[in-house]
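Data deposition worksheet. Section B asks for the primary sequence of the deposited chain exactly as it was used as input, without tags or linkers unless they were present during the calculation. Section C holds the resulting structure in C-alpha cell form. Section D is free text for depositor observations; keep each observation to a single sentence. Incomplete worksheets are returned to the depositor.
Section A, Depositor: J.P.
Section B:
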Amino acid sequence: MSFIERLFDLSGKTALVTGGSRGLGLQIAHALGGAGARVMISARKIDELRDAQAQLKEHGIEVEYAVADTARDDQIANLADEALGRLGRVDILVNNAGATWGAKAEDYPVEAWDKVFNLNIRGLFLLTQRIGKRSMIPNGGGRVINVASIAGLRGNPPGAMTTIAYNSSKGAVVNFTRALAGEWGPYGITVNAIAPGFFPSKMSQGLLDTMGADTMAAQAPLRRLGTDTDLHGTALLFASDAGRHITGQILAVDGGVSAV
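Section C:
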C-alpha cells in the first residue's frame, strides 16, 4: 500500500452513519466501508435498512444496521448504546439523517418547524454528545461529519423552495460544526460538514419533478446534478488521516452552485 493509499485507508476504524439506508447516507456508508471501515447504518424503516445492507454486500462491504428515529430522545440513547455495544467504539460519526417540509413562511406550521429542527439539529446534537462523551473523548480522537446543505449557506430566491425550517436548521448545523470543532479540537476530534447541492433523492424528488432535472442542472457551473458517487471523496477526506488537520470546515459539493 502506498503512502497516499494509507492516508485514506480506514481499516480497523468503525463508523456510524445515520440516515444510512438510502440517498446520501448510503453513498457515504459505501465510501467508508469501501475504504475498510466497519460500518453501522441507522434509519427508521427496517426494510430500507435490509435493502441497503444487501446493496453494500454486493460490493463486498459488511455492514450492520439499527432501527432508530433520531428525532426521539429515547431512540437516540438506544442507538448510541447499540452502536457502542456492537462496534465497541465509534471512530467516525456521520450525522446524515434529516427532514424537510415545504410551506410559505407566513403559513408555516409550528409542528412542522419542530419536526424539522428535532431531527436536523436537536437529534444531531444529542447523538454527537453521547458518542463524543462515551467513545471519542475517552479514546483520544475521532471524526464527526455533519451533512449540512447549501440551503444552510443562503436563502431561497423568490418562486423557488419555501423551506424556511430546513434552511434554518442546516444553517444551525453549519455553526454547530464550527463551534464543536473549537471545543473538541483539544481532544483530537475533528468536526466538519459536507454541504451537498442538488442530488437526486427521495427528499429532493418533489423539487426535481417541479423544476425539472435539466433546469436544475443548468443552474450549476458544472451543468450537472450530483451522482451516487460524488460524496465519496469528501467523506473519505474528512474521515481519514488525509484530513487530520482539517476541522471546523464546511465543504460544498454542489457543482459550483454556491459559488455564483
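Section D:
The chain is about 45% helix and 15% strand.
The first strand starts at residue 14 and ends at 18.
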